[in-house]
Write a structure and sequence with these properties.
Elements (H helix, E strand, L loop, with lengths): L2 E5 L3 H13 L3 E5 L5 H8 L3 E5 L7 H11 L5 E5 L4 H9 L4 E4 L4 H24 L4 E3 L2 E4 L4 E3 L4 E3 L2 H12 L4 E3 H8 L5 H17 L6 E6 L3 E6 L1
Parallel strand pairs: 1-2, 1-3, 3-4, 4-5
Antiparallel strand pairs: 6-7, 7-8, 8-9, 10-12, 11-12
Length: 229
């Protein structure tokens, strides 16, 4: 049985969502705010998190960042009425893996949950297919640990960052199509996921900024060329 951590402060909506998901065979732990949520994430060993943005005491973006640091591979779906492009980019940057606008249908939510679980499993298999240590000049990528070791520091990667870097490593000195990357990591190539990919590519480029002979080159209209020379 898949476990869902559901954080929502609106009682009526929370009851509908929780009851429906339980009828569909999910185990649901509902919390109305972010207090002590880190303990819940560790104790409940959840498979996916549904997270409202507007919460008492702590906003969903900050909470997602905390959850992501504790569990780098956990899918996080934001459920919110905040749907301006900047809000969506902020949500993905803080660790969200999907974004669903309120009001939403339960059927769409269930489809999104199942899609995120499939993507997580698919991404995990990609990470597992790589060696334990991937040598990138004087950098080292450890897919199983979600770590990138530079000459000066150890960078803890998010699950999405690790998935994208794993795909780039699988195509070292070759091209990976942008659409293929979106499908493999997010399950679709929507505009919002495309913006999210841009954020992660910028982050990865920043991690390799001091590396000689390592570059993520944009191929306009096609995708990316991961150069390791």
């Amino acid at each position: 049985m898949k476990k869902i951590l559901y954080i929502e402060d609106e009682p009526y909506l929370a009851r509908i969502v929780k009851d429906t998901l339980q009828l569909r065979g999910y185990e649901v732990l509902h919390k109305k705010d972010g207090n002590k949520i880190m303990e819940q994430v560790a104790a409940f060993t959840t498979d996916i998190c549904l997270l409202d943005v507007m919460l008492p005491d702590i906003d969903g973006y900050a909470l997602a960042t905390h959850i992501r640091n504790l569990n780098p591979q956990l899918p996080i779906i934001f459920l919110t009425s905040k749907t301006q492009p900047n809000d969506i980019v902020k949500g993905f940057s803080s660790g969200g893996t999907d974004y669903l606008k309120k009001p939403f249908s339960m059927e769409e939510l269930i489809v999104r949950i199942e899609n995120q679980l499939k993507i997580m499993n698919r991404g995990g298999s990609t990470l597992e297919s790589l060696p334990d240590e991937v040598k990138l000049k004087n950098y080292r990528f450890y897919p199983g640990k979600y770590e990138l070791h530079t000459p000066s520091e150890v960078i803890k990667l998010s699950h999405r960052e690790s998935q994208i870097l794993a795909q780039l490593c699988a195509h070292t000195n070759g091209a990976v199509e942008r659409r293929e990357l979106l499908q493999l990591v997010w399950g679709d190539d929507s505009f919002f996921n495309s913006r999210n990919l841009d954020v992660y590519i910028r982050k990865l480029r920043g991690y390799f900024a001091g590396a000689e002979g390592i570059e993520i080159v944009t191929l306009k209209g096609k995708g990316y060329h991961f150069v390791v020379s």
